[in-house]
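Explain this fold:

***
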Amino acid sequence: MDNPLHYRGFWDCAEDTVCECVLDYSFLVSCPLEVLKITGDYYGSLEELIQMKCMLEKLSCLEHVEVHSRATGESKLKLLSDLQKLRRASSKCKFDVVS
C-alpha cells in the first residue's frame, strides 16, 4: 500500500475515530505484509492507537512495525509501551520507534 491510511481527528465524533474504510479492510486478514512503516510524526494519540490496533488485529503475517516519531526519552518509552500493549494477530510482531 503506497497511499496513507487515515483517521478522523479529534474534531469528529469519538465513536467514529477510525474511518469505516479501515475497519472494513477485510483483505488485511490474508495480507502477507511483514513490515509496516509509519512515517511522518506519530504521536501515539488515542486516535492513532485505535487505528494501529485495528491494523494489528488483522495483519497475521506482520513481523515488524517501524514507527517514526519525534518522541525522545520518557515519551519514547511510553509510546513504545503503549504500542506493545496492543493486541496483535501475529505473535512475531515487534516494534521500533525511530526518532
